[in-house]
Amino acid sequence: MAQEDIFKKLVAHCKEYGYVFQSSEIYDGLGAVYDYGQNGVELKNNIKKYWWDSMVLLHENVVGIDSAIFMHPTIWKASGHVDAFNDPLIDNKDSKKRYRADVLIEEQLAKYEEKMDKEVAKAQKRFGDAFDEKQFRETNPRVLANQEKWNALHARFSDALNASDLAELKQIIEDEGIVCPISGSRNWTDVRQFNLMFSTDMGSTADGALKIYLRPETAQGIFVNYLNVQKTGRMKLPFGIAQIGKAFRNEIVARQFIFRMREFEQMEMQFFVKPGTELDWFDKWKETRINWHRALGFGDENYRFHVHEKLAHYANAAVDVEYKFPFGFKEVEGIHSRTDFDLSQHQKYSGKKIQYFDPELGESYVPYVVETSIGVDRMFLQVVAASYCEEEVESNGKKDTRVVMKLPPVLAPVKLAVMPLVKKDGLPEKAREIIDDLKFDFNCQYDEKDSIGKRYRRQDAIGTPFCVTVDHQTLEDQTVTIRFRDTMEQERVAIAELKNMIADQVSFKKLFAKLK
């Protein structure tokens, strides 16, 4: 199945099973804004808990805050967002659609990669176990030709980005023959910069209103609270401040479902260190964060690091953690060494001394910062994409297709579905009794509609790891049948054993043990 078709199925599945809805759908929706449904919000909260606890509980020197969305407008002047928070945009004159020029070129690079991967896949199928991928990539003429095109485009693109050469970006688009996805034409405007911040007015009268911005990132809320946290928490370097919160960007190219949205949520941690040690800490957090992703069990080969071609004005090192989505490798998290730029700027613009007194050196200085920043929504999409599975199974002697979300049990929205075999003979009451006992420990769901087979399929599609069936034997010996989602195997167990059995599989403690 084509990757594009898989992604369309994923989007449809998210709506059908209560994960993600188009915002304001009854009014024809709002572009690039989405709502999380009853299962989506549970998965999202579990992802946030995994991140928050791994940061704050597992690190003695990391604490959390929750800063306001509205902030003094001078903050965004100091951070550089007012003057430099721009995207290079280009319009197609025929479709009247606007695109990010850098994204169009990145997609062209991905096409060359896809061509090379297809050649490798065909050869692998032809030669089987004897296939040597490294040798094939180094010798096959078609792979080498596409690699040469990729290298040339990559070098040219990198130079243009680093030089902020908008004319060169347009020339690359024209030279590569990149067409508008809507009109199919190459009738492009010039590339120009566009500021991504949303602005609004704060005040009781129009004349006295203060122009403020919806924050485009959560990091600045951490930086302006550095002194408050450091002093009240008596924090010593190195230490970190973590935060989860909403951010807003007026994205023009907002597509690929929830991958790029105008209203989104970030999980960020700013780690304050002694100047000169920042690159060592950058390497440590880089390793810590990739391990956090890999612990979920989606395959180490589906993650890679992407070193930034162009560093932000405040950074001296930057790398992305990329995951292989159905539409290719894309960023899910960034790790950046931000130097002392942010604190120094806020010290300059506020007129307040923002420094750390080092008792060992007997002197004060502005700390350097290493940032880890991950999008909750992208992480959500990564988990859903990695978990969605269609597999052929036997059902009553016939082959059937089972759609299942193989979510890590710890992240699954519903941990346990309890089902009476029939809606009589006291079985529903017994099922309710089991739920009443377990609902304080797990998110449980009662399901009595349709045949037991259809109920299993429904819970598979939601991603529920355990289904418990209450039958007539239950009333006799206090045992139930527990079914395991991934294997579809069933086991007879005592009701009294359910709590410990499920708790062992859905415990964050078990997941955190992999991070050591």
Automatic annotation (TrEMBL):
Q: Which UniProt keywords apply?
A: Aminoacyl-tRNA synthetase, ATP-binding, Cytoplasm, Ligase, Nucleotide-binding, Protein biosynthesis
Please give one Gene Ontology molecular function term for this protein. Answer: glycine-tRNA ligase activity
Task: Establish whether keyword Chaperone is in the entry.
Answer: no
Entry EC no(s): 6.1.1.14
Q: Give the Aminoacyl-transfer RNA synthetases class-II family profile domain ranges.
A: 197-413
Q: What biological processes does GO assign it?
A: diadenosine tetraphosphate biosynthetic process; glycyl-tRNA aminoacylation
Q: Enumerate the catalysed reactions.
A: tRNA(Gly) + glycine + ATP = glycyl-tRNA(Gly) + AMP + diphosphate
Please tell me one Gene Ontology term that the record gives under cellular component. Answer: microvesicle
* UniProt-annotated binding residues for ATP: 249-251, 259-264, 331-332, 375-378
Q: Enumerate the subcellular locations listed in this protein's record, separating them with semicolons.
A: Cytoplasm
Where along this sequence does the record place binding of substrate? R100, E217, F264, E265, Q266, M267, E268, E371, T372, S373, I374, G375
How would you summarize the oligomeric state and partners of this protein? Homodimer.
Question: Which family would the database say this protein is a member of?
Answer: Belongs to the class-II aminoacyl-tRNA synthetase family.
User: What function does this protein fulfil?
Assistant: Catalyzes the attachment of glycine to tRNA(Gly).
Protein's UniProt name: Glycine--tRNA ligase
Q: Which organism is it from?
A: Mangrovibacterium marinum
